[in-house]
Write a structure and sequence with these properties.
Elements lengths: L2 E3 L23 H4 L14 E7 L15 H16 L6 E5 L5 H13 L7 E7 L2 E5 L9 E5 L15 E3 L2 E2 H10 L5 E6 L7 E2 L2 E3 L8 E3 L1 H13 L4 H10 L5 E4 L8 E5 L2 E4 H12 L6 H16 L6 E4 L22 E7 L2 E5 L16 E5 L5 E11 L2 E6 L8 E9 L5 E5 L7 H9 L4 E5 L7 E5 L2 H9 L11 E4 L17 H22 L11 E7 L7 E4 L16 E2 L2 E3 L4 E8 L5 E8 L5 E5 L11 E2 L4 E4 L9 E3 L4 E10 L4 H13 L7 E3 L3 H15 L10 E4 L3 E10 L1
Helix pairs in contact: 2-7, 4-5, 7-8, 9-11, 12-13
């Protein structure tokens, strides 16, 4: 029996080149193996950082304010202090009203250029709007130069009908400032863009309108002349050098030249999708992970976290050996972490949760337990969470722990009242209230307006504007004008969710009800994903059927035991593009000392869920067992009567592998009931309404960890020493 693997449209992701308009040349990461922020690994006299974040662009600017840029700065600040040994007094932050053009330039000069000496480590980060102005030298084919938009850069009166000047900081200026820093150990991170602007679905775009009718303020051009004189650099040499590549060190931008940088909601806060996922990834790493391994993961998780198709881009100084130096991390084996204690008062602690995956945030509000662990994973103290606001948590110390101590997950709490948040798109027009009422009538479905917090999906209609946007993005099978269905938060289509144009809103909500229930079940089970934290020792790989070619792999990075792991281990290598009709095989290996119980689920791009293991429905719970040292093959020749074949609809498919140290009895009984109703005795089972099965599965998980908690709430708890949930993602094309 074929099982359809179907993913939600995901573009091919590579780190290619830093923004062309900033004068940065293409860099082949597959050949170079560049390590991100290599210089932070070196023992240097001083580490300096300038972090800029602007949310509050004034109304007089004639473009929208942002919401996540100040969070980006705190994400970077906590990371630099607690993971990379920066002293707080050596990190200068400029936010909102302080981040004027003059304020940014002066801070760069005083804090970085005048203080940094050869061998020092320097980081510059900008989160805010990007734009473009006319480039007199026409470095790029379109004659435009990318810019950073300070808080005091307003559009000229009459724009866009008339042009004028703006107080932006040009890419040319940034090149000169980088040239003036007296160390090669320089990292520049820009979480902004200059494509699009305004909003897209539930995301805000970090781009201000610009282009061929805007010019840089004369003061900007004069400032460049002053730096040319200070650097003893002729205009001709300046032109030649910037066209060759960046001036020093390493530069990273959050999106390619024609892509959008998402300012995205996560739980109850906003952040740059790229900055959050990059810093979260760096909290999790140990040792010297290569950027050529990290890049696809950060790019993929950025897209998954925000539903925005943005590809981070990367560049090093031409002719340097920066591509072969150590990673952003220190070379010594440090303890990866989900959190760090930032303050202690008596038996109460405040924590920064920068290492948590955004999909799991809802599981860290109460009853979660974090431990101060050593390099071997042994507990050196515990704290139990009582509340969370954004990425700041408060909890009770169960034993003494000092501020600055990194923390790892021990137990997470899965809320029993988790909802699926559905945004209402303006395209619904007068049917907005009817859609809200219809959605609210579905159990655990929450309807809310866009741009007012996190949503998992959007209900909307296909308009002429959306059709044009989808065509420009290369979408195929675009629904008919006026049809109602589901979008991702960034307005990508959810396949097979759109009905006929004549359908009423009430009929559309009724039709979508089963799909919404499946999407809710998928969200609940994904809340258990813990491959970075689990202490079970499990590895998963995916290959073409009959071949040993690796398509995707994942493993529990902190798994107990001494089974061999890859050199430069990476928690996940996936996001592969598989053509329709590709036969695949999964291999799940139990490297744990114990016999483990497994279940394997597949969720396709339209939200449909199927169970491919267990698949013998008249058997006992032993059918779910995999002994220590054994490998489960799915499908296995001579045993299984089905194949795993990629099928329509195209898009992202996710495979979830659940491993437990205790039997999954409730889930097995629920699955046997589903199979029995369908007359099946063997083979994969599709779940038209998976919530009962998932509820039973969570109860099994909760049983394995109940002894580890002292909470009395109804939340289910998941213990990393007794359960692992891993994910493989790929795209069907």
């Amino acid at each position: 029996m074929p099982v359809a693997f179907n993913p939600v449209s995901m573009k091919r992701r590579h780190f290619l080149q830093f923004a062309t308009a900033l004068g940065l040349s293409q860099f082949d990461i597959q050949q170079q193996g560049l390590r991100y922020a290599r210089v932070l690994a070196q023992g240097t006299p001083r580490k300096l950082a300038l972090l800029i974040g602007i949310n509050d662009y004034p109304e007089s600017s004639q473009f929208s304010a942002l919401q996540g840029c100040v969070t980006d700065i705190e994400l970077q600040r906590q990371l630099l202090i607690h993971r990379f040994g920066f002293k707080p007094q050596d990190i200068l932050t400029l936010t909102d009203a302080r981040a004027t053009r003059q304020g940014i330039l002066a801070a760069f000069e005083e804090h970085l250029i005048k203080q940094a000496k050869p061998g020092d480590v320097v980081v510059f980060h900008f989160s805010g709007h990007g734009s473009q102005v006319i480039d007199p030298d026409k470095d790029a084919a379109d004659g435009l130069n990318s810019t950073l938009v300070p808080v005091d850069s307003v559009l000229p009166p009459g724009f866009p009908d008339q042009g004028g000047t703006v107080k932006d900081i040009m890419g040319h200026t940034l090149f000169l400032l980088m040239s003036a820093v007296q160390t090669e150990n320089l990292t520049v991170v820009l979480d902004s863009c200059h494509s699009g602007g305004g909003t897209r679905g539930n995301l805000r775009v970090r781009s201000r309108a610009g282009g061929g009718i805007l010019q840089a303020d004369p003061a900007e051009l004069e400032y460049q002349k002053q730096w040319l004189a200070k650097l003893n650099l002729s205009p001709e040499a300046f032109l030649r050098q910037r066209r060759a590549g960046i001036a020093r060190g390493v530069a990273i931008a959050s999106a390619k030249r024609d892509q959008l940088a998402a300012d995205a909601p996560f739980s109850d806060f906003y952040a740059g999708a790229f900055t959050y996922m990059m810093t979260q990834y760096l909290w999790q790493q140990t040792g010297t992970t290569l950027v050529k391994n990290a890049i696809p993961i950060v790019a993929q998780t950025t897209t998954k976290a925000s539903s925005s198709s943005q590809e981070p881009i990367f560049e090093v100084k031409p002719g340097s050996d920066n591509g072969s130096q150590s990673l952003y991390f220190t070379p010594k084996q440090s303890v990866p972490a989900e959190a760090v204690i930032t303050r202690v008062e008596g038996d109460r602690a405040e924590l920064w949760l920068g290492g948590l995956d955004p999909q799991s945030l809802a599981a860290f509000e109460r009853n979660a337990i974090l431990v101060a662990a050593d390099a071997q994973g042994d507990s050196q103290g515990q704290v139990k969470l009582e509340s969370r606001t954004g990425l700041v948590a408060r909890g009770k110390l169960l034993s003494a722990i000092k501020p600055g101590t990194p923390l790892q997950e021990k137990v997470r709490g899965i809320p029993t009242n988790l909802t699926l948040k559905i945004g209402l798109d303006p395209s619904l027009g007068q049917d907005m209230n009817a859609a809200r009422q219809g959605l609210q009538a579905i159990k655990r479905i929450e309807a809310r307006p866009l741009q007012q917090g996190e949503v998992q999906y959007i209900v909307g209609r296909i308009t002429e504007t959306y059709q044009k946007m989808l065509r420009q993005a290369g979408a195929t099978s675009i629904p008919a004008l006026g049809s109602t269905g589901l979008f991702a938060p960034g307005l990508d289509l959810v396949p097979e969710s759109f009905g006929p144009p004549t359908e009423t809103i009430a009929a559309a909500i009724e039709r979508l009800q089963s799909k919404l229930k499946s999407l809710l079940a998928a969200r609940i089970v994904k809340l258990t994903l813990n491959s970075n934290a689990s202490r079970l020792n499990v590895a998963v790989s995916m290959t073409p059927a009959g071949s040993n070619q690796l398509l995707a792999s994942t493993f529990t990075a902190r798994g107990l035991g001494k089974a061999a792991k890859p050199s430069n281990p990476t928690p996940a290598i996936d996001a592969r593009r598989l053509p329709l009709g590709t036969s695949i095989q999964l291999r799940v290996t139990n490297n744990d000392p114990r016999t483990l119980y497994f279940s394997v689920l597949v969720i396709n791009s339209s939200g449909e869920m199927a169970v491919i293991f267990p698949n013998q429905w008249m058997a006992s719970e032993e059918v779910m067992q995999v002994a220590s040292g054994q490998t489960l093959e799915l499908p296995k020749a001579g045993r299984d009567n089905f194949q795993l074949v990629t099928q329509e609809p195209k898009g992202t498919t996710e495979v979830l592998i659940i491993a437990s140290s205790a039997p999954l009895r409730n889930a097995l009984r629920a699955l046997q009931n589903v199979a029995s109703r369908g007359g099946q005795s063997r083979g994969p089972v599709g779940l038209s309404d998976p919530n009962d099965v998932i509820s039973n599965l969570l109860e099994d998980m909760n049983t394995t960890s109940r002894s580890a908690t002292t909470g009395t709430t109804g939340d289910r708890t998941i213990d990393t020493s007794q359960l692992a949930t891993l994910s493989l993602t790929f795209e069907v094309v």
